[in-house]
């Protein structure tokens, strides 16, 4: 196998270096350099490292997964595919890619983050270059905000130093202490490098329920006007979305310089899910468990959900979040 070839080369070059007289110092240095490359290659064969064999963008995979596994999100699907593929094609981006995903729980925000990670990193969300922060877990105490700011800067700087193709996901932004996220503002800005570290190839994704009610309100207005949800466009939502998160005194984006300085590339709305989307989630989950998708079972799961508004029973209030657990009762 490949590891045996590398090992033989390593042994040969080690022997060669030892056998050389002082007069062959230049050759020895070259041999040592080659040996170092072999050691690194060998290490990267066994362990994940910041190299193309572990990090390589697969646009086909991302497009296929968005089409087949994300339901009811035509706006999010289109923007994410274009934003991520455009960014990954750029060999010298001027700043990191910064996406902010908004919508009710269970509409697919975490799932999309996972799909993006899987399209870039061989190990997906398990990659050591993908970092997930959850506000209620990692930044619990308001009185420790100064400590959190220093830690956050250190974590981001250290991980980008380790690999410039790093991804940072911040979940529950609506529960983050206001002001905390501004501590990493310099890393998201248009700088070639800061103290020798370049952040331009990194990706930052923020997830938030904030703005979900506004998104649902717009979707409901379209429905009441007899329009299809597919007619809703980003322009119908983006401005009110950025304003609502910017003015929310209890959220992580409150009066943030990230919005002031236009450092968030896209505010991406996730629409509330309808009955048929919950059915699709249940069918997809059965397929993921290597079971034959059963429409009757999917209907039973979908009917158990709570829908809003109460009279119209239009949108699942928890999206597809509880589909996995509910499915366990029927299979």
TrEMBL record:
<comment type="similarity">
    <text>Belongs to the ClpA/ClpB family. Torsin subfamily.</text>
</comment>
<dbReference type="GO" id="GO:0019894">
    <property type="term" value="F:kinesin binding"/>
</dbReference>
<dbReference type="GO" id="GO:0005524">
    <property type="term" value="F:ATP binding"/>
</dbReference>
<dbReference type="GO" id="GO:0034504">
    <property type="term" value="P:protein localization to nucleus"/>
</dbReference>
<dbReference type="InterPro" id="IPR049337">
    <property type="entry name" value="TOR1A_C"/>
</dbReference>
<protein>
    <recommendedName>
        <fullName>Torsin</fullName>
    </recommendedName>
</protein>
<keyword id="KW-0547">Nucleotide-binding</keyword>
<dbReference type="InterPro" id="IPR027417">
    <property type="entry name" value="P-loop_NTPase"/>
</dbReference>
<keyword id="KW-0325">Glycoprotein</keyword>
<dbReference type="GO" id="GO:0005788">
    <property type="term" value="C:endoplasmic reticulum lumen"/>
</dbReference>
<keyword id="KW-0732">Signal</keyword>
<keyword id="KW-0256">Endoplasmic reticulum</keyword>
<dbReference type="GO" id="GO:0071763">
    <property type="term" value="P:nuclear membrane organization"/>
</dbReference>
<feature type="domain" description="Torsin-1A C-terminal">
    <location>
        <begin position="273"/>
        <end position="330"/>
    </location>
</feature>
<feature type="binding site">
    <location>
        <begin position="103"/>
        <end position="110"/>
    </location>
    <ligand>
        <name>ATP</name>
    </ligand>
</feature>
<dbReference type="GO" id="GO:0016887">
    <property type="term" value="F:ATP hydrolysis activity"/>
</dbReference>
<keyword id="KW-0067">ATP-binding</keyword>
<feature type="signal peptide">
    <location>
        <begin position="1"/>
        <end position="19"/>
    </location>
</feature>
<dbReference type="InterPro" id="IPR010448">
    <property type="entry name" value="Torsin"/>
</dbReference>
<dbReference type="InterPro" id="IPR017378">
    <property type="entry name" value="Torsin_1/2"/>
</dbReference>
<dbReference type="Pfam" id="PF06309">
    <property type="entry name" value="Torsin"/>
</dbReference>
<dbReference type="GO" id="GO:0005635">
    <property type="term" value="C:nuclear envelope"/>
</dbReference>
<dbReference type="Pfam" id="PF21376">
    <property type="entry name" value="TOR1A_C"/>
</dbReference>
């Amino acid at each position: 196998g490949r590891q045996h070839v590398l090992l033989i080369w390593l042994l040969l070059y080690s022997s060669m270096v030892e056998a050389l007289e002082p007069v062959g110092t230049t050759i020895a240095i070259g041999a040592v350099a080659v040996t170092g490359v072999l050691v690194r290659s060998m290490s990267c064969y066994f362990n994940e490292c910041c190299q193309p064999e572990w990090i390589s963008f697969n646009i086909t995979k991302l497009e296929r997964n968005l089409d087949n596994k994300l339901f009811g999100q035509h706006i999010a699907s289109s923007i994410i595919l274009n934003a991520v593929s455009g960014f990954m094609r750029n060999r010298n981006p001027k700043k990191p890619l910064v996406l902010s995903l908004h919508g009710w729980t269970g509409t697919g925000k975490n799932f999309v983050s996972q799909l993006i990670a899987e399209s870039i990193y061989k190990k997906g969300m398990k990659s050591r270059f993908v970092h997930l922060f959850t506000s209620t877990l990692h930044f619990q105490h308001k009185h420790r905000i100064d400590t959190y700011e220093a830690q956050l800067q250190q974590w981001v700087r250290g991980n980008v130093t380790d690999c410039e193709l790093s991804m940072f996901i911040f979940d529950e932004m609506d529960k983050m202490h206001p002001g905390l996220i501004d501590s990493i503002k310099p890393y998201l800005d248009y700088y070639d490098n800061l103290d020798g570290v370049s952040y331009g190839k990194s990706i930052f994704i923020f997830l938030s329920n904030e703005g979900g009610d506004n998104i649902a309100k717009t979707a409901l207005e379209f429905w009441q006007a007899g329009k299809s949800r597919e007619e809703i466009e980003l322009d119908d939502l983006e401005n009110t979305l950025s304003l609502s998160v910017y003015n929310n005194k209890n959220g992580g984006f409150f009066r943030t310089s990230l919005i002031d300085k236009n450092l968030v590339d896209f505010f991406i709305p996730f629409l509330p899910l309808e009955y048929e989307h919950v059915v699709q989630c249940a069918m997809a989950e059965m397929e993921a468990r290597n079971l034959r998708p059963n429409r009757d079972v999917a209907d039973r799961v979908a009917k158990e959900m709570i829908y809003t508004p109460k009279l119209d029973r239009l949108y699942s209030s928890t999206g597809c979040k509880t589909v996995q657990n509910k499915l366990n009762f029927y299979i």
